Amino acid sequence: MAVIPTDPGTPDSRSAARYLWWLVVAQRRRIAAGSLLGSAWMIGLTLPPYLLSRAIDGGLRSGSPGALLRWTAALLAVGVLNAWLGIMRHRTMTKVRMDAASRTVQIVVRHSTRLGAELPLRVTAGEVAAIGGSDVARISESLTVTGPGVGAVVAYFVVAALLFSVSPLLMAVLLLGVPLLAVLIGPLLGRLQGAESAYRQSQGELTALLTDLVGGLRVLGGLGGKGLYADRYRAGSQRLRAEGYRVGVVTSWIQALAVGLPALFLAAVTWLAARMAAEGTITVGQLVAVYGYVAVLVAPVAFFIEGGYGISRGLVAARRVVRFLAVEPHAGPAVRHGPESAPERPSVLCDPASGTEVTPGLLTALVSARPAEAAAVVDRLGRFTASDVTWGSVRLDAVHPAQLRERILVADNEAYLFAGTLREALVGRQDRGEDAIARALHTAVAEDIVAGLPEGLGSALDALGRNLSGGQRQRIRLAGALLADPEVLLAADPTSAVDAHTEAAVAARVKEARTGRTTLVTTTSPLFLERADTVYYLVDGVAAAVGSHAELLRDHPGYRALVARSTGEEEAAGACGEAVGAATSKEAVL
C-alpha cells in the first residue's frame, strides 16, 4: 500500500513542466524502481519470439525432441517471470500515481488555507473543484510514462538490435518507421492541448455558475430569477458540449492512430520479412522471430503515443495547478518588529481605518447601511485581511497566529457547515461536555432545532446544512461560536435570518452569557442594539458617531432612519425564513 506523504514539500510552480518534474523528483526512488521493472517487463516481451525461433529451428526442423523441450521450458519460464514483472510494475506505478495525487491535493489544500478568507474572492469555486477532481487524476496519470514509457524506449532499441542480427534492412525500417509515427501524431497532441485548455476553462466557469445557482436557489425563486440563471446555465452547457466535441474529435484521431499506425507498421515489416524468407535470405524460424519482435513492438509504440497523450493532458492540468499556486494573499503592511506575544490581559482592539475600538468586557455593536463595510472591520479585527489594527500596545499582525486564534474568534454567519452530525458541527475539535453544549444551545435559542431532529445531537447534517433553514443554520453557527467561549468574539450579523421574537431572546441571552467577556456584533437590529454597551455608526466605512443606542437614535437622523428601515425589513424576512425553516425541518424529520 502506498505511504501518503505527511509533508508534500515545496513544489516548483514556475511552469507546468517544472511542476510535473518536481513530482517525479519527489519520489525518484519509486519511479526508478518503476522504470527498472517497466524496462525488464518490456525486454521480457522480446524474449518469447527469440525462444520460439530457436525451438523451431533447433527443435522442429532438426528433429530434436530434447532441444524442443528445453526451448519450450525456457519459453514457459520467461512467461511466468514476465507475468510477475508486469504485476510488480503495475503495483509500483499505482503507488506513483497515488503519491502524485496526494501531494497535489495537499498542496492545493495548503495553499487554500494560506489564502483563507481571500480564497472565494480570488478563485472561483468551480476552479478549485476542477483542480481537486479531474486535474489531480490527470496529473497523476501522466506520471505513468516514467515507468512503461522508459521501458518502451529500452525495448525499442533492444528490438532494433535483435532485428540487426537477422537483417540490417529490417532494423533500418524499424529505426525510421517509429519516429515517422511520432511525427504524424505530434501535431494532434498540440491541438489536443489547446482543445483541452478551452474545455477545462469552460468547465470551471460552468461549475462556478452551478454552485451559485444551487446556493442561491431560494433567493432566485423569490426574485423570479431562476429562469434567467437556468438560461445562462443552459447556454454554458451548450458551449461546454461544443468544447467537449472538439476534444473528442482530436482524442478519437489520436486513439485511432495509436491502434492503426502500429498495425500498418507491423504489416509492412512482416511483408518485407516474408519476402526475404521466400527468397531464402532468412530462415523460417527467423521469420517467426521477426513477426514476434514487431508484434511485441506494438506495445512500446502504443506506449509512446499514450505517453504523449498523457503528458499533453497532464500539462494542461498542471498549468491550472500552477496558476492557482501563483495566487498569493495580499501582503499586509511591513511589521517593523519581530513576532510579539499577545497581551497577557484582555486589551482594547483598535482599528484605525474605521475608528472602531472594542473595549474588553463590553458588548460593542457596529451599524452600517452597507453590511460589507461592517464585515470589512470584522475581517481586520480578526486579522483576516491586512491592516494596522492594534491589540493593546501590540500590532495585531505581529502576534503569533496560534495565540491570536486561541483568544479571538470570528463568527461568520455564512460559515461552512460540513456534513456530519449536529454534535460535530457544534463541538468541532473541542472537548465539551453535555452541560456546556446545552448552555450554548440555550443562549443561541437553538434547543428547538435539536428537539425537532429525529436523533437530536446525533442527527445527520447535509453539507452546508441544507436540511436546516437559514435561521436554524445561523443559530447553530452562533451556538458553536459560544461553545468555543473565546476571550474576544466577533460576530457578523448573527441574527439576520431569524424572527423578531427569537432575535430578542438571542440578544438578551448573549448579553448575559458573555458578561465580562469581549463581544462585537455587526447588526442593524434595535433588539440587539439596545443591549449593546457601545454602538459605532459607520458611514462609508468610518465611525461617524459613537454612543449608546438611545443616544444615537436621539442625535443622528441617519442612524434613526437606518434602524427604523431595518426593523420592518427584518421582521418580514425573519418571519419568512422561519416559516420556510419549519417546513424544511419537518421534511427532514419525516
Can you give a write-up of this model?
The chain is an alpha/beta fold. The protein is built from 20 helices and twelve strands. The chain has helices at about 15-25, 30-60, 65-115, 120, 125-140, 150-165, 170-215, 215-225, 225-280, 285-325, 370-380, 400-405, 420-425, 435-445, 445-450, 470-485, 500-515, 525-530, 550-555, 555-590, and strands at about 350, 355-360, 365-370, 390, 395, 410, 420, 460, 490, 520, 535-540, 540-545. It has a six-stranded mixed β-sheet with strand order 6-9-10-3-11-12, sandwiched between helices. Strands 2-1-4-5 form a four-stranded antiparallel β-sheet, covered by helices on one side. Strands 7-8 form a two-stranded antiparallel ribbon. β9, α17 and β10 (about 520) form a beta-alpha-beta unit. α7 (about 170-215) runs antiparallel to α9 (about 225-280) and α9 (about 225-280) runs antiparallel to α10 (about 285-325).
Rg result = 34 Å
The overall strand count is 12
Give the low-pLDDT segments: 217-223, 332-338, 569-590
Quaternary: single chain
Q: Helical proportion?
A: 55-70%
Q: Give the rounded overall mean pLDDT.
A: 78
The outline comes out as elongated
As a percent range, the share of strand residues is 5-15%
User: In whole angstroms, how far apart are the ends?
Assistant: 43 Å
**Largest sheet properties:** 6 strands, mixed
Q: What is the strand arrangement across the widest sheet?
A: 6-9-10-3-11-12
- The SS-based structural class is alpha/beta
Total count of helical runs of at least 4 residues:
20
